[in-house]
Design a protein that fits this description.
The chain is of the alpha+beta class and about 210 residues long. It is built from nine helices and ten strands. It has helices at about 20-30, 35-45, 100-105, 130-135, 140-165, 170-180, 180-185, 190-195, 200-210; strands at about 1-10, 10-15, 45-50, 55-60, 70-75, 75-80, 85-95, 100, 115, 120-125. A six-stranded antiparallel β-sheet has the order 2-1-3-10-5-8. Strands 4-9-6-7 form a four-stranded antiparallel β-sheet. The termini are far apart.
């Protein structure tokens, strides 16, 4: 894992070794059109841009993880381990998505998830506790935070429906239509556990659809 050094000088941020990821981070915050440049600068100041190797474990269960990870390039995965010892993929974050531990950030409890990089990944690591300090003092950042929570809540409802209502084949077709990048980029064993089936069953579904 490597970290992009951020140098602050007269309010200007210079990123080494590459400015590309910093620009991606600025673009991520700029989608909230009500944020001012000073707000974005404050948010960037509490962020560290890091790279993770494919397969690298970033966080582990049994610990409190207050950081949020904004995926700038690559793919991150959250999974939990069942009582039978099976890995269950519960979230897959690609470019422009945010991943973290809701259990820690919302309730100050130890995380149950493991976060790992599926691909070589660049992500902005946002200090969650410092973010909440900004939320308490800046109404525009509070609005951004609230809107992000609404998106996450809606996604959580969709994931419940995804598993509770749809058949395994319907789940695969849903991903094929709505998140086709996962079909191409996620290893079959992870994709199968995300859908809630075995890799063998996933292979059969793919064969039927083809």
């Amino acid at each position: 894992m490597s970290e992009m050094n951020l140098t602050f000088f007269s309010g200007v941020i210079f990123a080494l070794p590459s400015a590309t990821m910093l620009e991606k981070l600025k673009a991520f915050y700029a989608q909230f059109s009500f944020l001012r440049p000073s707000d974005i600068a404050s948010l960037i100041k509490i962020s560290r841009i890091r790279s993770f190797e494919a397969g690298e474990v970033i966080t582990q269960p049994g610990e409190k993880h207050y950081n949020f990870y904004v995926v700038l390039k690559g793919l991150l995965r959250n999974h939990i381990v069942s009582t039978e010892g099976d890995e269950c993929t519960i979230y897959l974050a690609t470019e422009g998505m945010v991943i973290g531990s809701a259990r820690t950030t919302m309730r100050d409890e130890e995380s149950h998830e493991t976060t790992m990089a599926v691909e070589a990944t660049w992500a902005a690591v946002v200090d969650g506790r410092r973010l909440l300090e900004l939320v308490d003092t800046n109404h525009r950042i509070l609005r951004m935070y609230t809107e992000s929570l609404k998106v996450n809540f809606y996604e959580a409802i969709e994931r419940i429906e995804f598993h509770a209502v749809k058949t395994p084949e319907e789940r695969y077709l849903y991903l094929l239509e709505n998140r086709p990048e996962l079909i191409q980029r996620v290893p079959q064993k992870y994709l199968a556990s995300f859908i809630g089936i075995t890799p063998v069953s996933l292979s059969r579904i793919r064969a039927r659809i083809k």
